[in-house]
Design a protein that fits this description.
The complex is a heterodimer of chains A (299) and B (590).
Chain A lengths: L2 H17 L9 E11 L7 E7 L4 E7 L6 H14 L4 E7 L19 H10 L6 E4 L9 E2 L4 H9 L5 E10 L4 E10 L7 E9 L2 E2 L2 E5 L2 E4 L3 E2 L2 E5 L6 E2 L10 E9 L9 E11 L3 E12 L5
Parallel strand pairs in A: 3-4
Antiparallel strand pairs in A: 2-7, 3-5, 5-6, 7-8, 8-16, 9-14, 9-15, 9-17, 10-13, 11-12, 17-18
Chain B lengths: L2 H27 L6 E13 L17 E13 L2 E10 L12 E13 L2 E8 L1 E2 L7 E2 L1 E2 L4 E2 L2 E8 L5 E10 L13 E10 H4 L8 E13 L7 E8 L4 E10 L4 E13 L2 E10 L14 E12 L2 E11 L44 E13 L11 E11 L4 E2 L15 E2 L9 E13 L4 E13 H6 L7 E14 L4 E11 L7 E10 L3 E9 L11 E11 L2 E10 L2 E5 L2 E5 L2 E11 L1
Antiparallel strand pairs in B: 1-2, 1-34, 2-3, 3-4, 4-5, 5-10, 6-7, 8-9, 10-11, 11-12, 12-13, 13-16, 14-15, 16-17, 17-18, 18-19, 19-20, 20-21, 21-24, 22-23, 24-25, 25-26, 26-27, 27-28, 28-29, 29-30, 30-31, 31-34, 32-33
Classes of the chains: A alpha+beta (299), B mainly beta (590).
Chain lengths: 299, 590
């Protein structure tokens, strides 16, 4: 073989190896989260509460910030909707973006931001707050729903058929500050896509200053913040529920544990659960069911 | 605007630009003067009718009375430049074709030029490396199968005896445009070296040797894995519970390689190819992380009046798709192709239970002898007699299952099993022994007689259940007679019978076909499931068809009942549901 051929052969091999690639996975199961809980052995004290959702509930994710002057008006619309659609609307507030920034030594020195909330804000919100996502469903090609469209679009989503029942049970162990969430999803349709489950922890009735656009009241000092996102129990994009297509009647059960270690009012905390379609760009879209359940801390 | 909507629009604009401007660019440059345009069209249409016996009603048809699959190829060639496109329409897709095909559009277009020994293709293309163990992209209209690649493809021959190929692209997936994350990117290189052309000392050698190698890789943004939560209790005072969440670490890149050799000498030819694939957890293999491997080889010998062919394959965990969650039928996004080594038969009852390749583990073997008894001999008769004996076998490979993962509770996340290279398992998938005698009796009569003895593991091949509880053993006999009435008029009669005590029991079939060459044909056929254990299912599947040829145009119509079953071509299969109604096929080329 002459030298030209040898060179050609070597170049071909180099190109071939550099062009091809593979990832050798030595450890296929990686740890994504690890938490420790302390349990008192004789702990028989617990309080449980549960909810079963068998009709389509709509999720409104409200992006806000305590320094957002137009947000109190949006919050008012949200409250009206919650009054009007009791048992059909689930909502929580995500403090994220520049108007959620903390100003030290001021009325706005409390940080309501969360890592998961900021991630969602960066993924979905281009037009600033106040802004809503309703069932993470697009209206006119956009996921962002302006406040003046909330009522009509939420009502439209409520007419959709229920694709999944959701049973949620919270058991709280006060001695260990431990919450155990049991959940069962029953799919009512055959579905081909991947579905994810998200569990978030929110705290309701937080009273703290909120900027306002009314000249006579530029700051509402006793503003009651609604269902403020505090932490994620699952990853923000949710846990995968199904690796294979879902058949009607399929039931999936999950259990999660969460230990409170922050200075929150646990009796005001709630678990928000929702199921949606997995999406490579947004993590999760097209929510099919949502539920909300408080945490019982005493009889 | 929704991201996929924007991409679809851009893609359509791309095609319009390509169609509008390619000829004008060519004319402007005067480079491609004297170009030729060729093309062809095929329209398959069906009108469905309700059929109480088959349980087909308007409701089961989803009120779709008609189905129509059609395509048109258009090819423009001028010197070293070629451009082409294929338009397809599924309005609605005919029964048995995936509903996601519904629509009309141009899923295939390309521009290709050749300069010197370099040929470049931009757009959609089909390609194959070796026998396809690590890469094959092809289209099979009857199966509704198309895994064309959209990207760039290059073929280059730097010196005589060296042929190099390189490609990068994304697979077709129904009408869904590619966007980041919805399927992987496939890239590969292949080299083939003819030793006889490379070494002057071998130029005149009677033994011809070609060697080759391929490297293929896919990049995919894998989906988020399911989470597995494991709680460990550490007893003490107080008791501590450690809750650990695990997820599967899917590889972003899955690579594969193959080496092959082809040696021929006189009438002998030997081909062997070995392939390996890196860890590729996917829906088809239940997300195990073991490597895949495959060996395919064939040996043939031919001389005057005699042909002998032997092939074998051994496959372990070689499902290789550009999206790890893709599985099921129709098979889509296949990067590779695992050659089928069972014979494809021409008679309807002998193909009632066809073989489907099992990518997760399969040993296959096929042998065939064709011998033509010379004409003028006592056995050969005045015109000679062709005798064909064929045997094919597919079995499982030996697998020693590993313990399930304590984290996932299944084999997910493990290597799944161990096996020995070239091991053969106990589970029979398929076996087919068949004899065929083909003889022209005299100037007016020609006869073909065939016998098939087949065993078909229905659980494995149709349901993915790996046991032997649904084995169908059958004997099939065929007599095919052709009577030449005049030089242009022939009458063909086909008598078939299938005997089995399994599945739907015995079948008989009679076909009569009249040919008025070259323009007309008419066929009447009845398949009768007379041995069905359920009296109500002892149905006749009666069909009448006629066709007319006019130059390069062909029209055919059909009325009758289609039985349900599998259609397999090259081990790739499509399920065909039962139906009744009219069918129309028009083909034309120019």
């Amino acid at each position: 073989m002459n030298s030209r051929l040898i060179k050609l052969f070597i170049i071909t091999l180099i190109i071939a190896f550099s062009w091809s690639a593979c990832d050798k996975i030595d450890d296929p199961l990686i740890i994504t989260d690890q938490r420790s809980f302390t349990v008192i052995t004789e702990d028989t004290l617990f309080f449980a509460d549960s909810v079963f959702v068998s009709q389509k509930q709509v999720l409104l994710e409200y992006f806000t910030g305590h320094q957002c002057v137009t947000c109190p008006a949006a919050g008012k619309i949200l409250r009206e909707m919650l009054d009007e659609h009791d048992q059909r609307l689930v909502s929580y507030s995500i403090h994220a973006g520049v108007f959620a920034d903390v100003t030290p030594d001021s009325d706005f020195d409390t940080d309501y931001r969360t890592t998961v909330g900021t991630t969602l804000h960066d993924l979905f919100i281009d037009f600033g707050v106040p802004m809503g996502l309703i069932d993470r469903t697009q209206q006119n090609g956009n996921y962002q729903i302006f406040t003046f469209n909330w009522k009509a679009f939420a009502a439209e989503q409520m007419t959709k058929p229920n694709k999944a029942n959701l049973a949620l049970k919270n058991t709280f162990y006060p001695n260990a500050n431990l919450l155990v969430v049991d959940l069962e999803v029953e799919f009512l349709e055959t579905l081909d896509d991947e579905y994810h489950l998200v569990l978030f922890l929110v705290e309701d009735d937080i009273v703290s200053p909120q900027k306002n656009n009314q000249p006579d009241q530029p700051v509402i000092y006793d503003y009651v913040h609604y269902n403020v996102l505090r932490d994620n129990i699952t990853p923000g994009a949710g846990d995968l529920l199904n690796a294979a297509p879902i058949s009607s009647g399929d039931k999936i059960t999950k259990q999660y544990t969460y230990q409170f270690d922050a200075d929150w009012v646990i009796s005001n905390c709630k678990v928000i659960a929702y199921i949606g379609k997995g999406n490579p760009d947004y993590g999760l879209v097209e929510i099919v069911q949502a539920a909300e359940l408080g945490i019982k801390t005493e009889e | 605007m929704k991201k996929s909507g924007i991409l679809k629009t851009l893609y359509q604009l791309q095609i319009i630009f390509f169609i509008l401007f390619t000829p004008s660019l060519a004319l402007a440059q005067g480079l491609f003067e004297g170009g030729t345009v060729t093309g062809n069209v095929q329209i398959d249409a069906q009108y469905y009718v309700e059929d109480d016996k088959l349980g087909i009603t308007d409701s089961t048809l989803n009120f779709r009375k008609t189905g129509m699959n059609a395509f048109s190829n258009l090819l423009y060639s001028a010197g070293n430049f070629t451009a082409g496109m294929r338009m397809e329409a599924y309005l609605n897709p005919m029964l048995g074709f995936d509903a996601r095909y519904e629509g009309v559009g141009i899923p295939y277009w390309f521009a290709r030029y050749k300069t010197g020994t370099l040929e470049m293709t931009a757009g959609h293309f089909y390609e194959q490396f070796g026998s396809g163990l690590v890469l094959r992209s092809y289209e099979e209209w009857a199966l509704g199968y198309d895994n064309n690649l959209y990207g760039f493809n290059a073929n280059f021959s730097p010196v005589d005896g060296v042929r190099l190929k390189g490609l990068i692209g994304v697979h077709r997936y129904f009408w869904e445009p590619y966007q980041s994350g919805n399927r992987g990117i496939v890239k590969g290189v292949d080299g083939e070296f003819s030793l006889n052309e490379l070494f002057s000392g071998l130029t005149e050698a009677k033994t011809r040797i070609d060697i080759g190698g391929s490297f293929v890789s896919k990049y995919e943004r894998p989906p988020q894995s399911e989470s597995y939560i494991v709680s460990d209790t550490i007893f003490g005072d107080p008791v501590t519970v450690v809750q650990t969440t695990y997820q599967l670490a899917y590889p972003h890149n899955v690579g594969s390689y193959a080496f092959r050799a082809n040696v021929s000498h006189g009438g002998f030819s030997f081909y062997a190819e070995y392939a390996e694939k890196s860890n590729d957890p996917n829906e088809s293999n239940s997300y195990i992380f073991r490597k895949g491997s495959a060996l395919y080889s064939s040996l043939s010998f031919s001389t005057s009046g005699l042909g002998v062919f032997l092939s074998t394959k051994w496959i372990d965990n070689m499902s290789y798709k550009s999206k790890l969650t893709e599985a099921g039928t129709p098979p889509m996004l296949d990067i590779n192709y695992l050659p089928a080594i069972s014979k494809e038969h021409p008679y309807s009852l002998s193909t009632m239970y066809p073989y489907a390749t099992q990518p997760n583990g399969e040993f296959g073997l096929q042998g065939q002898i064709d011998y033509r008894i010379p004409k003028g001999t006592k056995l050969g008769g005045a015109f000679g007699t062709l005798i064909t004996v064929n045997y094919s076998l597919a079995r499982s490979i030996e697998k020693e299952m590993l313990d399930v993962s304590p984290i996932t509770g299944t084999i997910k996340g493990t290597d799944g099993y161990t096996t020995s290279f070239l091991s053969v398992g106990d589970l029979l998938y398929y076996r087919d022994l068949n004899f065929l005698i083909d003889r022209r009796i005299n100037r007016t009569w020609k006869a073909t007689a065939a016998y098939y003895n087949q065993s078909y593991n229905q659980n494995v091949l149709e349901k993915g259940i790996f046991d032997e509880t649904e084995m169908i053993d059958m004997h099939i006999g065929v007599l095919d007679l052709t009577y030449r009435i005049t030089r242009r008029n022939t009458l063909r009669m086909e008598f078939q019978a299938l005997f089995t005590e399994d599945d739907k029991g015995d079948w008989a079939s009679v076909l009569v076909e009249y040919n008025a060459s070259p323009r007309w044909f008419i066929t009447v056929q009845d398949e009768y499931n007379y041995g069905n254990s359920n009296n109500d299912d002892r149905l006749h599947y009666f069909n009448v068809a006629a066709g007319y040829n006019q130059g390069a145009n062909r029209f055919s119509i059909r009325y009758g009942r289609q039985r349900e079953g599998m259609i397999c071509i090259g081990g790739v299969c499509r399920y065909v549901p039962a139906s009744s109604g009219f069918g129309l096929t028009i083909t034309s080329s120019f």
